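Inputs:
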Amino acid sequence: MTLPLPWPFDRQYMQLALVAGLAVGTTAPLIGTFLVQKRLSLLGDGIGHLAFAGVAAGLLLGVWPLWSALVVAMAGAMALEWLRSRGRAGGDLVLALFFYSGIAGGVVLTGLSGSFNASVLSYLFGSILTVAPSDAWAVLVLGAFILAAVAFSWRALLAVVLDEEAARVGGLPVDGLNLALAALAALTVVAAMRVVGVLLVAALMVLPVGAAQRLAGSFLATLRWSALIGSISVVAGLTVARAFALAPGGAIVLVAAGLFLAVSLLAGLRRTTGEALAPPMGL
Amino acid sequence: MSAVLEADAVSFSYPRQAVLDCTTLAVGPGEFVALVGANGSGKSTLLRLLLGLARPQGGEVRLFGAPPAQLSQRWRVGYVPQRPVLAEALPTTVEEVVASGRLARRGWRRRLRPSDWTEVERALAMVSLLDKRHRRLSELSVGQQQRAWIARAFVAEPELLVLDEPVAGVDADSQRRFRDSLVLLVRERGAAVFLVSHELGAVADDLDRVLVLRRGKIVFDGAPDELTSSGVSLGIHASDLPLWLEGPG
């Protein structure tokens, strides 16, 4: 069914792309907001690399790649969080081990399955314009779950971000909340695979947050601004991609990067000209 | 009356270094007690054991009569950490920081109710930050930030407040306000305060007891007057206590 929407969303494939894109554009920055504050901006990237190994395993075993990617991404996210919480993933080396093992495992498995083709590339770089209704529904359900989880637990997650030990003394289940955040990050990566691809998914988790925290006056407003900027990036990226026949995943991320740069330049310009910063905007 | 905080012959050591050696202490309800010690004396380790963040290798720790891991009403213990290191651009407001402390009382799964927000306002008023509630924490001075962390601990209405080096690097005005807030908590709410520090200038006149930790052992446990009568100044010459602590045991 095609809805009567204006150009560029007048075709069904663009409407499906819009649905999947908005689900990811809204939720990826929400999870990214917590990761950035915990100085784990690269976690999404690492999980993305592992998810690629999951996709390759799915292709080899004849399983729907979204499911196999979900299993591997979840397991990897949990392992990374386990190491981090025990102070064993502080260095870049442990993270690098996961990142490159993931991508190397993916390459080996796709080689074994003989499927290093457009199907694999669509997971690496995204293929939002070929999203099927079933994919759009899956992404929508994952997005709704992530949104509900953040709405339910953002204050507790913030308490953990502020100070883990104080949160622990206050009786908060710090380990459980950290694991839940890692699991949500894995869900987000898998949901975003078809939209921007595993290689660019971390950008959608981080860039809108970078812009949002320069605009917002509170943590809650940062969550809202980041979701809004992520959504704008998706709509503008899809529009530009259709207008100029560009790769949509890359276009979405470039728009997000442009917004981040524009907001940062504006904030920097105001500081250097000595002008008082405008009061942070609530949302 | 039973102690709210107890360490009974607690020992702890790292692979090549004994940190605590049969350390024993107790804090009663409504008491205002300071633990002082030089850098490396074992203060931080003892604090982690007392709060249940680490397990002693010998002896026993009790919070309100129970091992820390078995204390179900965690809100009874408020904790002010030594100035947390936050991401530079963390966009959180003072009110959000303080409200996060209320989760200990309300439960992290539940939404904060109007009565919780009343407590948030009261805690902010106690540390004179009500007018800065909507400001970003990062925009405040070090002293004001420290008061926000204290309000975060106050807001759960704890019966025991544990503070780790709360006035290190804090300006005189904030030290005075900090002292007023603690005295209010002790006198009006009847809460016990356990303050870990190496300087006591701001609260020297209000303490019930001082404990001195040296090389993992409590070497003094008594009223501040007893310590000052031995020639150690707690308040007038702020540098005297740290110098004495560093001296030969």
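Chain A is about 80% helix and 0% strand. Flag for discussion at group meeting.
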